[in-house]
Design goal:
76% helix; flat; membrane; Tripartite tricarboxylate transporter TctB family protein; DUF1468
């Protein structure tokens, strides 16, 4: 890892760490009640621990990898075609939500994006995409006060739970 990339990564993580600590402190200062800190404190704790882990990992990996990496071992830059294809998939995902529903659109988007990134095992494509779409649909069904456009979601959630 070059010095420039090391400093940029540490700067970004430090920014997240400072922002999270500030938000936690401000929330605690506003109201130290359990209702106020019920979601903020665990989430902030996880973010702080992850930031500290990234800082430690980055510093120790930098010390281990001081030798210069040869040209052959450097990762190849991603092709522009795959980036454009991912952007097209995202646009299709957003536009198709009203027609086929959030749950089915999420399933198809996840499967297509994983296939685009090189995953070829059909069981993994279908299983992970279904699990992700189901959990996200379940979350939105219970946490958002207005109904999401879903094709299978409500009936499937009621049957499985």
């Amino acid at each position: 890892m070059k010095n420039r990339s090391l400093y940029s990564e540490l700067s970004l993580v430090s920014f997240f760490l400072i922002l999270t600590c500030w938000y936690l402190f401000d929330s605690y200062k506003a109201s130290a009640s359990t209702e106020n800190l019920l979601l903020i404190l665990p989430s902030a704790s996880v973010v702080i621990l992850l930031c500290l882990w990234v800082v430690l990992r980055t510093c120790f990996n930098f010390r281990k990898q001081k030798e210069v990496v040869s040209e052959e071992e450097q990762p190849k830059p991603e092709k522009k075609v795959s980036v454009l294809a991912a952007m097209a998939l995202l646009a299709g995902y957003v536009l198709s939500m009203d027609w086929i529903g959030f749950d089915v659109a999420t399933f198809l988007f996840m499967a297509a994006l994983m296939f685009l990134q090189g995953e070829r095992r059909l069981v993994w494509l279908g299983g992970f995409s279904f699990g992700f779409a189901f959990l996200v649909s379940l979350f939105f069904e219970y946490m958002i006060p207005y109904p999401m456009p879903m094709l299978l979601g409500r009936e499937m959630i009621e049957r499985l739970i």
